[in-house]
């Protein structure tokens, strides 16, 4: 599982943000974000709430308690449902 610092860095990079841009959105300095991302500092609860809202992930995911984000699980589920819908449609066509 990823650590908090690895997850923070990965989320920022996935969104194509610089540390400066992400820090501005998260209402902290770029230096403090750098410390969070390299593991030199640990955040407080207020920052965790802001980061979860900003990145659209749960605290469990951000803290490394879950392997995948809720979004990834939802996308996988929707893909599976779409494949099932296609199979059911094909089966119905065969019976008519």
Explain the overall architecture.
- It is elongated and about 65 Å long.
- The chain has 6 helices and no strands.
- Helix content is 72%, strand content 0%.
- Helix 2 crosses helix 3.
- It has 2 domains: 65 residues, lambda repressor-like DNA-binding domains (434 Repressor (Amino-terminal Domain)), CATH 1.10.260.40; 29 residues.
- The longest helix is centred in the C-terminal third of the chain and has 26 residues.
- The protein has 96 residues and is an all-alpha fold.
- The model has no long low-confidence stretch (mean pLDDT 88).
Could you provide a short overview of the structure?
By secondary structure, this protein is mainly alpha-helical.
Any chance you could write out the topology, listing elements then pairs?
Blueprint: H1 4-14, H2 19-26, H3 30-38, H4 45-55, H5 59-62, H6 70-95
Helix pairs in contact: 2-3
**What percent of the residues sit in helical stretches (DSSP H or I)?**
over 70%
Shape: elongated
Provide the succession of SSEs.
HHHHHH
Query: Biggest sheet, open or closed, and with what strands and sense?
Result: none
Oligomer: single chain
The helix/strand class is: mainly alpha
- Indicate the CATH class of the largest domain: Mainly Alpha
CATH overall fold name of the largest domain: 434 Repressor (Amino-terminal Domain)
Number of helices: 6
Note poorly predicted spans: none
**What is the terminal-to-terminal distance?**
49 Å
Number of domains: 2
CATH superfamily of the largest domain: lambda repressor-like DNA-binding domains
Overall pLDDT, averaged? Answer: 88
What is the CA-atom radius of gyration, in angstroms? 19 Å
Q: What is the count of β-strands?
A: 0
Strand content: under 5%
CATH architecture of the largest domain: Orthogonal Bundle
